[in-house]
Amino acid sequence: MLNLGVSLIRELRCLGNQELIEVYYCGIRELSNKSIDLLFRLDNRLELVDVCSDYLARKVITANMAKKFQSWWIKPLAIYHTDVRHVLLLDADNVIFRDPAIVRSLDGYVRTGTTFFYDRVIPGKRFLTGNDSGEIYLHKLLHEFNYARFNVSDGYAPSQHMVDSFAFNGLTIHEMDSSMVLIDKARAGKAVMDILFWFITKERFRFKLSWGDKETFWLAFELARIPYFFSPWGISAVNSVPNEDIKKHPKTLCSGMLQYMPTSDPGTVTADVLYVNSKSLIDPYPQGFNPKRKVKPNNMFNMFPTHMTPRQGRKKSKNAKKKYTSECLVDMGSTPLPDYFAPRLLRRRLHFFGLSMGVLGSLEQCETYT
Questions:
Q1: Do 56 and 139 share a domain, yes or no?
Q2: Of the candidates 197, 228, 259, which is a domain's last residue?
Q3: Is residue 345 part of a domain?
Q4: Sheet harboring 94-96: ordered strands across?
């Protein structure tokens, strides 16, 4: 994970981002002295934050609770903890193609101080659409949430976005993907942050509302009745070379989670790829090395993808005639990847492999090749 994270930091710098980067971790055992020395050696605009030790010392959480954040749940805890106003949360396995700070200049963030991205549409009766004492979880939450506890006007009053959402209408078990999250904490306000903290320290232990942390962000805004913004585009994907997507089913791509720039203004940026969340684009062993473990082809190292799902609004899941894995976007089409995709992916891989092999001089390389 360290090599993924450091190579992401280098890619941000190569894209021109010089903002302070906070690296959050949970407990002194999560980051060795050697790793800390490497991070500070390679970048002088980093701040390392042991959020669990800090909150333990201040008695905000217990030692047992702290262990529950040694996973992706550290992400919402980091947003709650940080003093940074304009938070831009990134997963280490994101392959980014634009400086993500540009998203703050787009209409959605300007209007609301947020930008969220959709997850895959997967029908079912789990998580947001799961059974909570005889009721659909999301519906019960909106009706029975203790609004007054957080100084929010009481009563059932879902936003129009909520009413129109696929999750509210029972079409998907996932609504939001949290591999990139943008929040202006000043505009979000205390109620949002307090509800977020309630989700990650109380509610998630009562009911498994999501696959990891992802739904807590937008739901905190919804329950606080604070406006928020989702990208107008549904999730896309790239083709999996090991899975032979283009050869076997060229309109159904099955690897990675591609997000376009979250704007519909043709005068700004049109159909531009912002990032792909996919460890299999970077790491030859994305699920670790175990000769006895069976790995699905679409989760294997994706050497040279050539196509992506075209930009389009969020769509209902299709009932395919054949069985696909949950990562596949069935019959949503394909279009060639932009020319800049391969050169920037190669640069990210160069940084990752340089770190993995101890050839740190490679991290100075920001040039791309055609």
A1: no
A2: 228
A3: yes
A4: 94-96, 273-277, 255-260, 236-238, 307-308, 335-336
CA distance 19 to 353: 25
Using alpha carbons, select from 48, 20, 45, 44 the residue that is nearest to residue 36.
Answer: 48
Output b/e per residue, 48-68; b: 16+ Cβ within 10 A: ebbbbeebbeeebbeeeebeb
Looking at the fold, whether 43 and 158 belong to one and the same domain comes out as no
What letter represents residue 269's amino acid?
A: V
The partner residues of 273 in beta bridges, in order of sequence, read 260
- Between CA 100 and CA 220 the distance in angstroms is 23
pTM score: 0.95
Q: Which of 199, 228, 257 is a domain's end point?
A: 228
In a domain, 16, yes or no: no
Tokens of 363: 């991290």
The percentage of residues in the chain with a pLDDT greater than 90, rounded to a whole number, is 89
The pLDDT value recorded for residue 293 is: 73
> What sections of 249-300 are H helices per DSSP?
none
What domain count does the chain have?
3
Identify the band that residue 318 occupies on the pLDDT scale cut at 50, 70 and 90.
confident
Report if residue 127 sits inside a domain: yes
Average pLDDT over residues 76-94: 98
Which residue matches tokens 């009721």?
135
Residue range(s) defining the domain that contains residue 289:
236-360
